[in-house]
Amino acid sequence: MRQTVTLLGDYFFYAFSTLSIICILAVITTPARSFIIADLYQQLDKNGKERALASFAEKLARAGVEPASFSPQLLIRKRSRELLVLSDDNIIASYPIGLGRSPVGIKLRGNDQKTPEGQYYICNKLENHRYHLFLQINYPSPDDAKRGSVQQIIKPGEEARIESAWQQMQPPPTDTALGGPLGIHGFGAETNWTTDGSIGLHNIHIEELYWNLATGTPVAIIP
């Protein structure tokens, strides 16, 4: 009986060792090895930080911009569905984007599914967001608030709160009819799909923006 148990243990050891060798050879020789290794690396590199820093450093080098002199500005062109990262007159990067489901025109209300137009800046960064990573822009701006007040979409007191947040470089109120919070996040750029008018990017692209841009970065959104 004892000899039988020993033999079974030996068989199990040999079988496990053989299976392990086969798995290692499969990873090394399979055409999909790069994807397997990349997936493992992605799990170790939380939210793509290391990859994003390295990739963006290469983009700066190609543009001839030193990291110390990098002065980022974002330009979002709705018509061509692209986001440009600029530093002075240099284009550092260009990314495809998805807009709100009703992309044409200025945003008037929180539920109109439009992407706003105007001058904003990144006012907050959220790492644990339902759409991967989130760079909040300070919509509604004072211009949005003034328009909303004139059209009686919001009350004068709400316009004053939005104006005060802008002056203090704080995220604006999001409890008015103008909506919010809006920003730039992941989960895809194939279509105009966001219901609140936020800007959608592919995850690898929002990772590059998130880990290389600071709050206060200007964001211009044009038709």
The name of the CATH architecture of the largest domain is Beta Barrel
Radius of gyration: 24 Å
Q: What is the distance, rounded to the nearest whole angstrom, between the alpha carbons of the first and last residues?
A: 82 Å
CATH superfamily of the largest domain: L,D-transpeptidase catalytic domain-like
Spatial strand sequence of the major β-sheet:
3-2-1-8-4-5-6-7
Q: Give the DSSP E fraction (strand runs of 2 or more residues).
A: 15-25%
The secondary structure category is: alpha+beta
Please count the helical segments.
Answer: 6
CATH topology of the largest domain: L,D-transpeptidase catalytic domain-like
Shape: globular
Report low-confidence residues grouped into runs of 5 or more: 32-41
User: In which range does the helix fraction lie?
Assistant: 25-40%
Provide the CATH top-level class of the largest domain: Mainly Beta
| Biggest sheet architecture | 8 strands, mixed
Total domain units? 2
Count of β-strands: 8
Provide the residue-averaged pLDDT. 88
The ordered string of helix (H) and strand (E) elements is HHHEEEEEHHEEHE
